[in-house]
Write a structure and sequence with these properties.
Blueprint lengths: L3 E6 L5 H14 L4 E5 L4 H5 L8 H10 L1 E4 L13 H9 L3 E7 L16 E7 L9 E5 L2 E4 L5 H17 L4 E6 L7 H13 L6 E6 H10 L6 E4 L1 H14 L7 E5 L4 E5 L16 H13 L3 H17 L13 H13 L4
Parallel strand pairs: 1-2, 1-3, 3-12, 5-10, 8-9, 8-10
Antiparallel strand pairs: 4-5, 4-11, 6-7, 11-12
Helix pairs in contact: 1-9, 1-11, 5-6, 9-10, 10-11
Length: about 350
Amino acid sequence: MADYRLTLIPGDGIGPEVTEATQRVIAAAGVSIDWEEVYAGQTALDKGFDVPLPEVVLESIRKNRVGLKGPCGTPIGKGFTSVNVRLRQALDLYACVRPTRSFLGVRSRAARPFEGVDLVIVRENTEGLYSGIEHQVVDGVIETLKIVTERASRRIVKHAFEYCRSEGRRRVTAIHKQRVMKLSDGLFLRVAREVAEEYPFIAYDEMSIDNMAMKIALDPTAFDVLVMENLFGDVVSDMCAGMVGGLGLVPGANIGDRYAVFEAVHGSAPDIAGKGIANPTALILSACLMLKHIGERRAAWRIEMATRKVIEAGDRVTGDLGGSATTREMTEAIIVAMEGLPK
């Protein structure tokens, strides 16, 4: 009998390939999971559902509490809301957590490669400018509302501090633009300061988004855990991914009070789907976050260390990392590397 029953969303494009690789690695780590497979994105439409996020997907996650999700595409020009946005809203997955850490042997594509990056973006997932409240005032004028509430601000900042505490990190930085948005970002900062007082052993500071952008480009190692609103977090997390080699190397988690969905944050890459050359790293590392979430921290550590060992060796990696291995070959190399680690 399996230890856990969790939801699996294979996704579109390369999704089924990287989810299969991730399942194999998890099983090799000794964690037995009974996967309930459901479909979203273009795959759901192809299977006859009317929408890219069928209710059966939400029901599965509500029942199992935790899901692993491959990349999903949203049909363009057909009036469908993004699968990712809809999932976050429907399940109130308010905290998007994106740990970003450099790999030895992987150089960013920047003119001046970054080294020693090890930071975490904690992004508020449910409001801000992404609330989707906008309308046309008159012809040629659109008004979009940025929603900031005390409740959402408090819970996202508290999540950042709890993450910092549980992962042995030392500092939380609140990112804002309070000088311009005095009321909305002013509310966010007031709440952040109140929450910070509850964690006297964790350092706290604040920085405007423009100043942070400059400083992180100069020295990303100066940052630890950064908490911010939706739009800022969307931009900054992708920027930081570029510092360590791209979205194919960065895990993602969307966490609420009751449910959590762990996902690769890159696209479905339909141009290479079925060719067996997709890099499975992002989803494998997302699975490590999932395993930590359910209490399998030792297995998560072994998988992450094995993945890093394979990438740093560089001879059994996919083409985007400079190698010539297939998805399966890289997955097998990770499993072999894991065998050499203490259980």
